[in-house]
Amino acid sequence: MATPTPLTDYQQTYHWRNKNCGPWAQEWVRTTLPTVKAEGDGNTVSITSVTSVEGDCDLGQRKGKLLTIYDMEVSAKWAGSNASGDEFTGTLQLREFTHEAIDGLTDYVFETGIEQSGGAADAFRAWLRGALPAALKPRLDGFRADLLSAHGMDTPGSGVSTPAAFKAGYSPAPPGEQHVRAVAAVAAQKKREDAGEKKGLRTVSVSVSAQMHASAADMWGLLTDAARVPLWSRAQADIAPDVGRKYTLFNGNVSGAIISVDAPKKLVQSWQTKSPGWPADHHGIMTITLDQGSDSTKVTFALDGVPADKEADITQALEAFYIRGWVNVRTPLTPDSNRWG
pTM higher than 0.70, yes or no? Predict the structure, then answer.
């Protein structure tokens, strides 16, 4: 049986470093947004105050690269007037202030409310919905550069210096440990889980596994290489083992994002299916582990956050589409499944 390719010296010695920049990020939002103003068609509007900032912001270093990871939700108040001198006030919700927007993976999500009513208010709000986001977006896009300027790390080729206080806050992983803390992805998932709890959604966990006559390295390729996934899924896939990257399997019927990668042993991803009865705003957490023995490798698909009333259906689907799908490529020895609530 083929053995996994040994790690290079460079791979064995790189560090993952992480700093919590949440307090700085909240202050940036509270001081920057009230400077935003928009004008046009005789109308004017400005942010008067930021009422709340929730979420996470971290700056990390991996393999000499700086990574900005943030996911926040912002509430603010605005005030404006039209050409006739009518004055209006209202609220702004920025639902997703995330690094994925700058990376082109998603868009900023704005929601506006107005306290007044009537024809003039309706006309002003229609203008506001386009003008205020357009004025905010350049400021939000500048967040990453300001974060790097304030909290950059000393790293070869980065060109960014690290304040002494930041160096004291490093949390390096031991050499040789491939450990990635996908803070933003985990934080986003926590929000979804909290929302599910508030809605009274009871969840359970399911697990299916099988022993395969293959090396962990071979199986890792079948899990994470978009060109090889169809060998067992018999459907189009879009996936790569990059933290934060979104993926789709089974022609888009399963989707999510990569949370952490420990090749070729463990892959953690958020997981959602279009199966009837699975809530559209709910994600589970799929943890795939590959435990290589002397002559075979055990693969386990453990899914947390399964709606309780879908336990049997999801377990059956995992066995049918994941475990049995692999039979087309490798012959399993002793498939088994476990369930727990």
Answer: no
Question: Residue 220 sits in which domain range?
Answer: 183-340
Provide the token pair at 82.
Answer: 């039209």
Average pLDDT, the chain: 77
The full 3-state SS of 162-211, as one line of letters, equals CCHHHHHCCCCCCCCCCCCCCHHHHHHHHHHHHHHHHCCCCEEEEEEEEE
> Quick check: bond before 264 cis, omega within 30?
yes
Percent of the chain with pLDDT over 90: 39
Residues 113 and 212 in one domain: no
Are 199 and 256 found together in one domain?
yes
Assigned domain for 331 exists:
yes
Residue 312: Cβ-neighbour burial (10 angstroms; 0-12, 13-18, 19+): exposed
Does residue 336 sit within a domain? Answer: yes
In this structure, the answer to whether residues 187 and 324 fall within a common structural domain is: yes
pLDDT, tens only, 110-149: 999 999 999 999 999 999 999 999 999 999 988 988 888 8
* 323, two tokens: 């475990």
Q: What is the CATH number of the domain that holds 265?
A: 3.30.530.20
| CB-based burial, 274-308: b 16+ in 10 Å, e otherwise | eeeebeeebbbbbbbbbebeeebbbbbbbbbbbbe
Residue pair 139/108 in contact (Cβ under 8 Å)? The answer is no
Decide if 87 is inside a domain.
yes
Report residue 65's pLDDT band, with 50, 70 and 90 as the boundaries: low
* 223 shares a domain with 106: no
Beta-strand pair 110-114/87-98: antiparallel
Do 328 and 255 belong to one domain? yes
203 & 127 share domain:
no
Q: Is residue 293 part of a domain?
A: yes
| Predicted confidence (pLDDT) per residue in 242-268, tens digit | 988 999 998 889 999 999 999 999 999
Q: Is there a contact between 153 and 160 (Cβ–Cβ < 8 Å)?
A: yes
Helix, strand or coil, per DSSP, at residue 239: coil
